[in-house]
Design brief:
alpha/beta; amino-acid biosynthesis; transferase; 41% helix; 5-stranded parallel β-sheet
């Protein structure tokens, strides 16, 4: 007997939960009905809802909402991994942000989640040779969300950006999977070099508020960068660095700093 193949769009627990939460939200507060229907319940899939949300946020007099939706639809159809990464980002936000109580919140309200999805769309355009469109998305993302991520940067999945104000990620930066960062983080260069000049952040890294990681350096897996630090040299895996300039002050404190979000240095 042949086995039927089912796509993620047909069996999608993340999308199903978002829809259920949307209906519950309308029951609890009817005034959000139009918002929830437009942003969630009027759509047949997570991909459609995500494309709509990005288009609503980034559209302008220079680029219509419909054009933005067409770009997003083309991207999600050509590269399903984009929406899979978005699901991982959404679940990461729910798991790590104590202010996130429902799956629908990042999709509707959280600019960190929305900005990283806009970056993913811009990165897809960049990788497919549509650089002017990708620069437009970078520009609008910066204008709307206050987050500036170069479309050539490479960012993994399961990313949580809390508060998400004044984030800067440079052109040759690389960010691994399951990374958490807070507001005002910079992954920047140190001059006008044209080559590989930005940080490489490993998997499971936690970067505290206001931290600056500068230059073509490596921050090892499951390490911790304390708030306000300026990191100018490589950081070994599973270490905590703090200060200006940052120095190793101890172990990471746990096996998964980005997931536990423990920023206290009391264990040092």
């Amino acid at each position: 007997m042949a086995i039927a193949h089912t796509s993620i769009r047909e069996v999608d627990p993340v999308w199903q939960r978002i829809c259920d939460e949307g209906r519950e939200a309308i029951e609890q507060e009817p005034l959000v009905g139009a918002l929830v229907h437009a942003g969630i319940l009027n759509h047949s899939s997570f991909e459609n809802a995500l494309g709509y949300r990005i288009a609503m946020k980034l559209a302008s007099t220079e680029m219509s909402e419909q054009t933005m939706r067409d770009i997003a639809t083309a991207a999600y159809e050509a590269e399903p991994e984009l929406a899979m990464a978005a699901r991982a980002d959404l679940v990461a936000t729910y798991d790590r942000d104590p202010a996130c109580h429902r799956f629908l919140q990042p999709l509707l309200f959280f600019k960190g989640f929305q900005a990283i999805q806009a970056y993913r769309l811009g990165h897809w355009l960049w990788e497919n040779g549509k650089k002017d469109l990708s620069y437009f998305i970078q520009m609008r993302t910066s204008e709307v969300f206050g987050i500036d991520i170069h479309p050539a940067a490479r960012i993994g999945k399961g990313i949580m950006i809390d508060h998400a104000h004044s984030i800067v990620v440079g052109e040759t930066a690389v960010v691994g999977d399951n990374v958490s960062m807070l507001h005002s983080v910079t992954l920047g260069g140190t001059g006008k070099e044209d080559d590989d000049r930005h940080p490489k952040i490993g998997n499971g890294v936690l970067i505290g508020a206001g931290a600056k990681v500068l230059g073509n350096i490596h921050v090892g897996d499951c390490s911790r960068v304390a708030a306000g630090s300026v990191v100018l040299t490589d950081v070994p895996p599973k270490k905590t660095v703090a200060g200006v300039p940052a120095k190793i002050v101890g172990e990471a404190g746990c096996s998964q700093p980005a997931i536990t979000m423990d920023q206290l240095l009391g264990d040092i």
